[in-house]
Amino acid sequence: MKKDILNFLKTQRLLNLATVSKKPYICTVFYAEDASGDLYFISEPKSKHCKNISGNTSVAVAIFDSHQRVADKKKGVQIEGNANEVTEEKEIKHALKLWNTKNPGFENVINYQSMKTGKIKGKIYRISPSRTKFFNEELYGPEGYKIFL
After folding, report:
1. pLDDT at residue 1 above 70?
2. Which of 57, 73, 81, 109 is the most exposed place for a label (fewest CB within 10 A)?
3. What 3 state SS string does 87-144 have?
4. What DSSP element (H or E) covers 12?
């Protein structure tokens, strides 16, 4: 994934996540990104979006700076990919470290031990992008974007 996209992802904290079962559904979650561009979020498996993911891993994501004004140079990403629950201990711990670094304040609650013992019901999910559309008028000019596969 291009460095410019990763730099943009580092500046944001929330993503809009669209999932599908019989009907589409969208939610907003806090996320963290890794160096390869995979995105991690924490949600309860019984939530509607996680139930949808368990039946259909295809997802769409939108991330943007909600403080942008209509006259500003636009910047944001639209992602298509697959989401899955992370089950390997090493990756869970890595994702939690990324998530808590980006979203500080709940490290004493949102941690591996709390997940393992069931103190919290949330699980880690990974979104692996297959297509990313990066809107960036500063880099690509008016209404400019680039698609990364």
Report:
1. no
2. 109
3. CCHHHHHHHHHHHHHHCCCCCCCCCHHHHHHCCCCCEEEEEEEEEEEEEEHHHHCCCC
4. none
For 3-148, give the CATH class: mainly beta
pLDDT in tens, 104-137: 999 999 999 999 999 999 999 999 999 999 999 9
Distance CA 56, CA 53 (A): 5
Q: Which amino acid is at 46?
A: K
Q: What single DSSP character describes residue 49?
A: H
Listed by start position, the domains of the chain span: 3-148
Distance from C-alpha of 49 to C-alpha of 21, rounded to nearest angstrom? 9
30 DSSP assignment: E
Angle at 27 between CA 23 and CA 32, to 5 degrees: 135
